[in-house]
Amino acid sequence: MAATAAGPVHEALAALGLVDHHCHGVVTTALDRAGFESLLTEGEAWPGSGISPFDSPVGLAVRRHCAPVLDLPRHAPPEDYLARRAELGAREVNRRFLAAAGTAALCVDTGYAPERLTTPAELAGAAGRGTAAYEVVRLESVAEGVAARGVAAGAYAAAVDTAVRQAVARPGVVAVKSVAAYRTGFALDPARPSDAEVTRAAAAWLARGSGGGALPLADPVLVRHLLWTAVDLGLPLQLHTGFGDGDLRLHRADPALLTDWLHLTAGTIPVMLLHCWPYQRQAAYLAAVFEHVYLDVGLALHHVGPYRAGAVLAEALEITPFRKLLYSSDAYGLAEFHHLGAVAFRQGLAEVLRRLLDIDELSLADALRIARWTGRDNALRVYHLPDPAGHAEGLDARGTTPTADLPDERP
Amino acid sequence: MAATAAGPVHEALAALGLVDHHCHGVVTTALDRAGFESLLTEGEAWPGSGISPFDSPVGLAVRRHCAPVLDLPRHAPPEDYLARRAELGAREVNRRFLAAAGTAALCVDTGYAPERLTTPAELAGAAGRGTAAYEVVRLESVAEGVAARGVAAGAYAAAVDTAVRQAVARPGVVAVKSVAAYRTGFALDPARPSDAEVTRAAAAWLARGSGGGALPLADPVLVRHLLWTAVDLGLPLQLHTGFGDGDLRLHRADPALLTDWLHLTAGTIPVMLLHCWPYQRQAAYLAAVFEHVYLDVGLALHHVGPYRAGAVLAEALEITPFRKLLYSSDAYGLAEFHHLGAVAFRQGLAEVLRRLLDIDELSLADALRIARWTGRDNALRVYHLPDPAGHAEGLDARGTTPTADLPDERP
Amino acid sequence: MAATAAGPVHEALAALGLVDHHCHGVVTTALDRAGFESLLTEGEAWPGSGISPFDSPVGLAVRRHCAPVLDLPRHAPPEDYLARRAELGAREVNRRFLAAAGTAALCVDTGYAPERLTTPAELAGAAGRGTAAYEVVRLESVAEGVAARGVAAGAYAAAVDTAVRQAVARPGVVAVKSVAAYRTGFALDPARPSDAEVTRAAAAWLARGSGGGALPLADPVLVRHLLWTAVDLGLPLQLHTGFGDGDLRLHRADPALLTDWLHLTAGTIPVMLLHCWPYQRQAAYLAAVFEHVYLDVGLALHHVGPYRAGAVLAEALEITPFRKLLYSSDAYGLAEFHHLGAVAFRQGLAEVLRRLLDIDELSLADALRIARWTGRDNALRVYHLPDPAGHAEGLDARGTTPTADLPDERP
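Output (structure tokens, whole complex):
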């Protein structure tokens, strides 16, 4: 894929106001080299090792695609990049990258913030131009909050239910999220646990945490209970799958392991498989055979960089219905990732579609429709978001299934 | 890969009468939109969802490659496509696509037909031009038939053996097939079950089905018993692996899970790994290290479309010996898939070989030989089919191991 | 990737003296067709089957890239190739391929030699031009030697420790290696086994082997014990992962299964994941999140050939930090594989980097640095090898993290 490639699909994707259906806030303080590098990698930074996260595909992508946003030449050295970043200050840096991302709407996971991050409203403010922000509630964080505030085991299920319902009743909440992939992996008993099982598991978990606040929720019964809580709630459920940090057991985050649970939940809530790499083909299979399953390749987009993003998207799109692929950045901490995710998605998808167009495997109208659906409309539809007006000019090719005709999906 | 790419390998593959070593019949009745769409997807159709199977890679491929066969422009809208299809009628539609496929011989799995499908003879008749049809017997269907007709548990093994031998004794039967991937997955005890184990498992299974006809055979012991029945029979055994419909647990259909069983069956029957996607590299490994293992990427070919078929074939061919890859469409229900599978195989393989030729990684004679072997000769050899004369003109480049010198493989 | 592609990265990689951090010796006797073919495949050769290993990707690669080294035309027929090979004699053949490989240093696994192979010194001698040779000690072979010489179960652990320490104290030993992937797979209890567990397991294993010499070490406790022995030793540990011969269960050689053990060993020895295919993305994930994890795609390089080597390397490099990828051939038996591995690595990596350069995703200085690091410097650094002078001309572009500044990694 060529950064310099042009043509109608590249132009349409460049002009499209993306809906980023899963992302996080960014840090608001100045970052020194160690701080920046620790956010640049999904691993830990390895100070003293001589191995810098700049010397990785995402590091190259930052120097190539982010340096110019800070008025530096392409491929600027890390030292220059960090100096310029410090000179501009966090507020200006965040503003530039969020604006450059060209995102029309952001769905922000607020459940993980070991450091101070922007709120959804602050993030949207940095993006400017009328960007809308929505919130995604992380279920494990809610349950851990319930435990931290103190609850009897027998009252745990009801307290979690109440807390989750309160959390999603706040304005702007459009989905919930689970990190079951991290906590237990997906090789779980798929069945809804009984009340007695939940009480028993809660008792054991709460006992372990007593005296020192809540432990991370990693009990298989309680993790399953949260997944089923999401089903009862009726909102789309975002599930981390595949790639992430070193706390994963990657093979247990293969979304194919969810199949039994997906059979049990067919006809209920939309299930949004996040990230998926390197299991994007497995995720695509699930999206092809289950009506309620969707996917994205967020996080991978900026880590593999714009060139390989096209290859990953091409695999994801081998069998995925075009109504089932969404855009997310999964940007966390660094505003750069909001920009890089958008660049990688636009360039990667444009290149996949251009190649198909070049050999006449699809029509231009189809290509433009697929770009608009995956970059924006699929998310508007699944999350029932209002149309972010003014971002869709130039993308009015009509598909076979116009959005306006689509029925409501929420159960 | 370019539909418009030309050159000697494209021309040779275009002229080659393919042997489709695994396919199904097609429906003979008129299809309305719902009926057509339900056959277009490996999932269920999702009426009322607003998500049409036309809006997927296979839908694009139908509009691109099948519309012209029905005298429509490329990329015709679904409505036009379905109207023209209805106008021509099922008989004419089937005739056109089967003829367009250019298949010299078809091996037809007759064991799954929830709706009325063409027989192998009818399918060959639709293809015309002297196309030969052979039959593949599905083992689970035979066993379920034995149960449905009533059998004592102690007589089950002998009755299945008799029924399978009768089924394969019919003229034109060249192989058996198992859908163990669907019923239990491949993480099975690889050993041949004892008579007592089979009787005990049969008793439990037959008891569950008593009074209401046979249940699907999904008992691990009985599934293993069928695999070993195939070994005793001596015919090639086709195994569904990887991609399929929503009844799969994809990760349990990884053919690598068969390794222990393949060690036990080394030196016996040819084992034909069907489909394999997304585990085509795992299948290639097995074909590279086990003399009796072969593979295809059928089903995936038409679902991913001709462009990505090249990518999937390139992965499958990374280490697969060229005597071990076969062509299959796995077309089911829609005659379109017989055509699309052939188009995707010819274009995908031609593109893979052309790129190697362009950089002089192989000679033209080698490329033509690989095309002829994988598209036709490997199947003729494994299934002992007569040479479908008249389809091989232009492909007489001599390989290092001429077919005529190859000894008989059947044990 | 084009054999004929040129440009500064191709030229730099062509001129770079590679460090092959994992390979084996080559046979020193004449090979007839059966002997050559049995070394050409990771499976068994299948005499009488009519299927020749020449009819596979590695066979094409030998005819294309090795025939000219023996003064034959490209794509020479197997018969001509074998005749010329016999004519030149093993010594001259080995000399030509080792010299053609352009390897500056070789780390030779001496622990597997069912036939007579060159010693590391002989191998370096064949390579000429001051090529250095180092040795890698295979842990299972040492333990099996301890058992073969006779040891009481209670003395097993101490005897193995002593024998391993003696083995690695020999001049030129730079690493140890485990084939746990073959013996048990990686789904092991990650914890260090207790002395009592080791004694109990040793007693059972030694009893099985009594009277007939040592059995292959495949007990899970004893395999774990060897992994932890390596941790105590402090040398880099090479681990076979992924692709290999028919004794594997490929899915149990997925390096992701090592995650729990990698958590326990963080901060200790460098862990070198060898081969990895088809799990190169899983290996890349581990290298990205664990400071002590490195990978290569050796063995796959020559088996998939130079064209697909680029595709495999591109997947491996999607997220791998550039300090974490190394070159290995894993050549065994045939001197051709030393040459083919080097050709495939140089061409594959050059093509990956050229594409990125063409679209300005990285700078030329970055591309040259990545080439030099992965082809040579990363191995020098991990194994503390002296700089093989005279091989690095033309590759003096300065990276962001010059080698000279890197601290010692060995614990």
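The longest strand of chain C covers residues 103-109.
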